[in-house]
Amino acid sequence: MKKYTYTEKKDTRSGFGAGLHEAGQKNENVVALCADLVGSLKMEAFIKEFPERFTQVGIAEANMIGIAAGMTIGGKIPFTGTFANFSTGRVYDQIRQSVAYSNKNVKICASHAGLTLGEDGATHQILEDIGLMKMLPGMVVINPCDYNQTKAATLAIAEYEGPVYLRFGRPVIPVFTDPDQKFEIGKAWMVNEGTDVTIIATGHMVWKAIEAGEKLAELGIDAEIINIHTIKPLDDEAILKSVKKTGCVVTCEEHNKFGGLGESVARLLTTELPTPQEFVATNDTFGESGTPDQLMAKYGLDAVNIVEAVQKVIGRKK
Amino acid sequence: MKHTIKELEDIASQIRRDIVRMVHGCQSGHPGGSLGCADFFTALYFEVLNHKKEFSMDGVGEDLFFLSNGHISPVWYSTLAHAGYFDKSELATFRKLNSRLQGHPTTHEHLPGIRIASGSLGQGMSVAIGAALTKRLNGDNSYVFTLHGDGELQEGQNWEAAMFAPFHEMDRLICSVDYNGQQIDGPTKKVLSLDSLQAKFEAFGWHVINTDGNDMQSIVEGLHYAKTLTGKGKPILNLMSTQMGAGVDYMMGSHKWHGTAPNDEQLALALAQLPETLGDY
């Protein structure tokens, strides 16, 4: 198992804030909108340097999505910011008609996704957003795994032409990816090469997968770990190549197993290479109030759950 | 004036002919609101809107128009064809398989003249505000026009947008309301009363003007006047009284023809009332 270390913990939303600021410096057409959550989305640096390119919309997310769609007409590249719940479920029809169907170059940037939002509870902890967004034709869906990858992803989507959903989170987590990485949309990152099982993880679950990989190594299991930061378009080639070698797969995501990354992988494998698969994901449930760590443990999203899923899926190999 | 009122009325008559023929041709679509807004579209595209012949999505240096109540697509498609965006023969494909003239307007099939999809109601004002914000950032002093159904104003997103536009002094935004008092299930007064739209928009900070949307003189003058109101920090709302089905006697004033196509006999009755002025498609 390749050794991963970290010297600091940071939140992925701060990676977004840093990326947005830098994207704004690189391209004067980058504009930002927020629905009364500037601090939570870490948009202050962008607003300070480019006040005229920022629009405070107030608590009116539907209007924000429509305005963003309209701003693309004339060449702007709007980044909208609010919590993941209010970025997707609340404004699904506005995204569907004014952004996706109209093929507008809007970047829907969503913080506080998943259980790790914590104490605010289930009203704010969306676990369905990946599914909602990946079903929209033409929508790119990205869920980066740490501060550095989120920053790189934010810079990459500014250069990509078309609608994008960028999902990130609230808690501080280890920073373990390269600060100077080049983010390629739709390209998997090989975290660790192995032979016994393929662990495919996205977002906050990537560090958990690394922790699981270390425990599995102690148990004599050589896990291949792949980070799928782009859930759509899915890197079919990387997944198939790995699964051909290992013969079984565990998918890990901070999302409902209905409609998430795991289902995308299952769709690929069932048509191309039927393979035993286990899902580390929430199981058709809402969340609740608690600390992020308590919630990840209660809902089965810890390294120990990945280890158990790996042991189970290896047992299912023919 | 680029045209006389009589010339504009003649264009509107042809557009009305096209509307009933298009809706009859596919036996679906929304003739009532389309007919009611034929005069508005004529005034806008042939007299008021500063638009370029060659369509570009970005519309830099030209006025933009967004149709929020997308179901009245027949009137827009006919207007765009006669304004030169595409050949009028294409109107025959309305709502048919493989057409660029979808039931509701869309950019998806790349029909020139259309910059956003509409159909699911209540989204157009927000989009227009966005386009106007970009024009402001780009130092482009062109205007942004919209049209909304009156029933459509029951959608909440409109009021988010209506609150935003005055606060941000969007005074190059000119929104018109097709104030015909009808919606699918009946008169708006019975379905969900809009009460005083004038008072509501004024309370939100808009400059409201009133026009007769089926009187060419009134609508042309009203839209020209609206353009002179810029510089005062207020978006402009044109409360435009219309008759659903205007121009076809048996369709007028009733919600029955909101979304119903005429049969062969009804088509003949309608066409007899609408002189062919520019040549049928």
From TrEMBL, chain A:
<dbReference type="InterPro" id="IPR005475">
    <property type="entry name" value="Transketolase-like_Pyr-bd"/>
</dbReference>
<dbReference type="InterPro" id="IPR029061">
    <property type="entry name" value="THDP-binding"/>
</dbReference>
<protein>
    <submittedName>
        <fullName>Transketolase family protein</fullName>
    </submittedName>
</protein>
<dbReference type="InterPro" id="IPR051157">
    <property type="entry name" value="PDH/Transketolase"/>
</dbReference>
<dbReference type="InterPro" id="IPR009014">
    <property type="entry name" value="Transketo_C/PFOR_II"/>
</dbReference>
<feature type="domain" description="Transketolase-like pyrimidine-binding">
    <location>
        <begin position="10"/>
        <end position="175"/>
    </location>
</feature>
<dbReference type="InterPro" id="IPR033248">
    <property type="entry name" value="Transketolase_C"/>
</dbReference>
<dbReference type="Pfam" id="PF02780">
    <property type="entry name" value="Transketolase_C"/>
</dbReference>
<dbReference type="Pfam" id="PF02779">
    <property type="entry name" value="Transket_pyr"/>
</dbReference>
UniProtKB/TrEMBL annotation, chain B:
<comment type="similarity">
    <text>Belongs to the transketolase family.</text>
</comment>
<keyword id="KW-0786">Thiamine pyrophosphate</keyword>
<dbReference type="InterPro" id="IPR005474">
    <property type="entry name" value="Transketolase_N"/>
</dbReference>
<feature type="domain" description="Transketolase N-terminal">
    <location>
        <begin position="11"/>
        <end position="269"/>
    </location>
</feature>
<dbReference type="Pfam" id="PF00456">
    <property type="entry name" value="Transketolase_N"/>
</dbReference>
<protein>
    <submittedName>
        <fullName>Transketolase</fullName>
    </submittedName>
</protein>
<dbReference type="InterPro" id="IPR029061">
    <property type="entry name" value="THDP-binding"/>
</dbReference>
